[in-house]
Amino acid sequence: MSTSPTNSSRRVAVVTGGGSGIGRSAALALAGDGWDVVIAGRREEPLDGVAAEADRILPIVADVSREADVRHLFDETVARFGRVDLLFNNAGAGAPPTDLDAIDLATWQAVMDVTVTGSFLCAREAFRVMRAQDPRGGRIINNGSISAHSPRPLSAPYTVAKHAVSGLTKQLQLDGRPFDIACGQIDIGNAATSMGGGAAAGALQPDGETRAEPTMDVAETGRAVLYMAGLPLGVNVANLVILPPTMPFVGRG
């Protein structure tokens, strides 16, 4: 049985933050399943490296916090492939652990620009394309975080940004209904990437101590995104949490 999310024989995905980590994992999983995948990021070299790993991957340099870049990304995707069936809104930014009263506005704004504004801009362009294409509709998957549920100490910019992504997800779930646009969120804990893998060496805990935490193979995040992406549009995973089972999240640690 086909896993195509539309009646189109071509399945086209846009993956932001596609040059490394979770974005790379998702792009490779989708391409391996026969999707045409456009990966976006700010640096050309990592994007080209991912594109060299598999057929069906097209790299486009784009800063998701810039409106013109995002419009170009989606216009180029449509020009090349004719449609967009999936957006994996993956690009995000973090900040070093900092006491709340020491967080400077530039750091706060940098996290918000990529994680919140970037997610909105990409979702807006995907929405514009998906509602007008034939067959109509598509799917948006937002990369939230365990921090969209429960914060780590001294991480206000990232925590607030990821809670905002959850709000965007819920709004898209509602506003996409008339146009066959489904939206879900994947919340990932401690994938072994440059951003999340540091927990293995030690993560600051609420009691003030730093302790090592378990991590998981980042390839599992790509498999999870592929599962969500492959559902028919009549089915949606509203929220999926994936994490090592012994990660301190559920309960008290």
Helix and strand arrangement:
Layout: E1 12-16, H1 21-32, E2 36-41, H2 44-51, E3 57-61, H3 67-81, E4 86-89, H4 105-132, E5 138-143, H5 156-175, E6 181-188, E7 203-204, E8 210-211, H6 219-229, E9 239-242
Helix pairs in contact: 1-6, 3-4, 4-5
Measured by DSSP, the beta-strand proportion falls in 15-25%
CATH topology: Rossmann fold
CATH hierarchy: architecture: 3-Layer(aba) Sandwich
Q: Roughly what percent helix? A: 25-40%
Structural class: alpha/beta
Let me know the number of strands: 9
**C-alpha-based Rg, rounded:** 18 Å
Number of domains: 1
Roughly what is the average pLDDT, rounded to an integer? 92
Count of helix runs:
6
CATH C-level category: Alpha Beta
Strand order of the biggest β-sheet: 3-2-1-4-5-6-9
Global morphology: globular
Distance between the termini: 42 Å
- SSE order: EHEHEHEHEHEEEHE
Polypeptide structure, described:
- The structure is a single chain.
- By secondary structure, the protein is an alpha/beta fold.
- The protein has a single domain (12-242), classed as NAD(P)-binding Rossmann-like Domain (Rossmann fold, 3-Layer(aba) Sandwich).
- It is built from six helices and nine strands, in the order βαβαβαβαβαβββαβ.
- It has a seven-stranded parallel β-sheet with strand order 3-2-1-4-5-6-9, sandwiched between helices. It has a two-stranded antiparallel ribbon with strand order 7-8.
- Strand 5 (138-143), helix 5 (156-175) and strand 6 form a beta-alpha-beta unit.
- The longest helix is centred in the middle third of the chain and has 28 residues, at 105-132.
- The chain is globular, with a radius of gyration of 18 Å.
- Residues 1-7 have low confidence and may be disordered.
